[in-house]
Amino acid sequence: MRDAPSRRHFLAGASAAFAATAVAATGAAATLTALPGCATAPPAKASPPDVLLVTLCSARADRLGASGYATRPTTPNLDRFAATAARFSHAWANGTWTNAAHASLLTGLLPGHHRVEDQLDKLVPGAPTLPGLLAAAGWRTGALLQEQGAMTLDARSDLLRDVSKVLDTPDLRRFSPDALVEWIGRDAAPFFALVTLREAHLPYGDGGAFGAALHPDVVAWRAALPRPGSGEAAVWADASDPNAWIAARAAADPAVRASLDLAYDAGLAAADAAFGRLLTALEATGRLANAVVVVVGDHGEALPGHKDRLDRAVLRVPMLIRAAGLQAVAVADTVSQVDVLPTVLGLAGLPLPKLRDGQDLGPALRGEALPERGALSQAFPRDGSGALRVRSAYAKGALRVVQAESAAGAEPGSVARGSAEREAADGRVSTEPPGPAVDALVAEMTALAADTWVPAGPAAPVSAAVREQMRARGYW
What we know:
476 residues; alpha/beta; single chain; Alkaline Phosphatase, subunit A; 14 helices; eight-stranded mixed β-sheet
């Protein structure tokens, strides 16, 4: 699905303007097999681009100003960037939480194929990663992580096994790009950098950015959750689940719901401010002029929570891509996180490995239609025995089918078990009745998920302390 031609901006130059002079630098790079129909390597005299991948934790596509959100000015910096980039209005997360989604971004594989489905999982053996493929071709690889620990994405994670330098920011609630800028400045060689921005993750923000106070119930809920870097939560008086409690309060009281929205918007605004600082700092180095910059949400947020949730609010994420020689383009085709790896390799002028799941979005960046494809999202909730189960959602064009029931306390508009929904041109979503179109979509989803790998028996043991920390942060 494409926007009307009168609304498109087309490519000023082909992605072949980028070089891959380092492709033949190592034998590892030479083992990559180009797919039939892929463009040949660009001229050797051009400089290979730097690659910046920015992930926005818990970022909902529908809360960006560039997506039409006007209740509050949540994302002025992202909006300015979007005006110069390709904006994918129908981008979907393949996983429902940080590690699963990042694994899809970095490998081009669906969760059931990369096998990162739980806190202790490692990537499937032999899976190539974006930083690994770039490193083999001469790129330096680094990551700046805003918050490490709690068994999510950190320096110990197998997801970063091909990243040579992992940095963090000293103040977890005040993002600083200084360490990344210093690392980039050490060498003129092209770099790949992953930057994670987590301010939109629960417990969100305090509302101060918009000059408004939060409802007392929301204040109490935020106080019950662990603060970044604190390691533990405050005592919750009745020992209940604070996320379930605030969800029930929001469902019962519109004022609480409105305040929860305010808190989330404040958190997203903080993430946007961090993105602005990052972009300003990197632009001052002069390295962004020839850079491929990808900005994408790792997952959205159901207010509160996201892990194992298949709500539209959790799975619909922002995706923006900017590179030298490209003009802004609005893309309405269905895409997902597995498409990032092949697209970056294409923009970097590197040959593509054989792709199992993702596709190169290069045609869309040139204003052309993509082959019609759907986006599969997968969650792996535990059953009563602790074993992981598979649940899927599948979006294609205006239709989406959901295999699993949303968790209790879901915000209005969440879909029920086994249902389908249709998005109108104005963004409104309605229930789609059973029929041939729904049947066809379910068949596609079933076929894609048929070879999903699921471990037998209970999941790997997780300590009670870590389990509680993860649960309080919205992962269970």
